[in-house]
Amino acid sequence: MVRAAVLPAVGAPLEIAEIDLPDPGPGQVRVRLTAAGVCHSDLSLSNGTMRLPVPAVLGHEGAGTVVAVGEGVTRVAPGDSVVLNWAPACGSCHACGLGEVWLCANALSGAAAVYAHRASDGTDLHPGLNVAAFAEETVVAESCVLPAPDGVPLTEAALLGCAVLTGYGAVHHAAQVREGETVAVYGVGGVGLAALQSARVAGASRIVAVDVSAAKEELARAAGATEFVIASENTAREIRGLTGKQGVDVAIECVGRASTIRTAWDSTRRGGRTTVVGIGGKDQVVTFNALEIFHWGRTLSGCVYGNADPARDVPVLAELVREGRLDLGMLVTERIGLEGIPAAFDNMLAGKGGRALVMF
Hints:
Elements: E1 2-7, E2 15-20, E3 28-38, H1 40-47, E4 56-57, E5 61-69, E6 81-84, H2 94-97, E7 116-118, E8 124-127, E9 137-141, E10 145-147, H3 154-157, H4 163-174, E11 182-186, H5 190-201, E12 206-211, H6 217-223, E13 227-230, H7 235-242, E14 248-253, H8 258-266, E15 268-276, H9 290-296, E16 299-302, H10 310-322, E17 332-336, H11 341-349, E18 355-359
Parallel strand pairs: 4-8, 11-12, 11-14, 12-13, 14-15, 15-16, 17-18
Antiparallel strand pairs: 1-2, 1-4, 2-7, 3-5, 3-9, 3-18, 5-6, 6-10, 7-8
Helix pairs in contact: 4-5, 4-10
């Protein structure tokens, strides 16, 4: 048996419970977790903004050590260090055929499976976002693990599985920030901090961080922000004032609120790009009129998992870490146990801190 954070129902408090994990079956891997990041997507699953089967063990950003493998597993062996990949591409759907693996139609098919049982009563449990990282150990498909890169501490490597991959991909793949461009990043959480660092790596000339909390300024500047703006109804005007009344070349929204998306759009220059990373609910409706769409000539695009290919991009990120150009540790503002996850959710709702990291 292992301890895990179980979501018994949508909107219910997480419960720390013992669960029974089966031995890995064909094509499966059992992983002992070293660390797991607490991501806003976990909060979105717990409150119903995103819907997947429950009861479930949440957590999708993690790293650990393989302790057992099932029949037919060839990519990893017991003792290997791995990073979890919550959205493995099937390689055969339409999106995969186009090379857009981040849009794989079957990436979350594993979330519907029963992967474990509650020890106390045998209740079926689903793996939230495929990998159920809020547990001391998990059993996942072989496709859900990537070799942990050399030279990166395993605790920090957990962040490569979502926050860093998403923030980096938003800058380099979705928005395609070019050297010398100006960038605004809305939301200084784990993904926003990764986006700020990635904009610096891309050679952005001016990087504006926007957040509701003035306490985030020091963190944002450490990640690469050259300016910090406290979010208000005047944010777009302030950012245009910082950029010769033009607006930034690229705005990256990491919040998922209609008002923030609209502000990000308004702060982008004519012909610029606005990339939405944040996951909002169906009630978050953004409106534009036809004339402004024509006049401003801006591009508004969504961004799923950083439009990234984990197998391709994790080694790139690792090299940036080894070169000292990407600092994973600075994203982490709190290290907690499983019992600390609810408080980490509360901090996210309150806009406090960067990434909370569950340590096992």
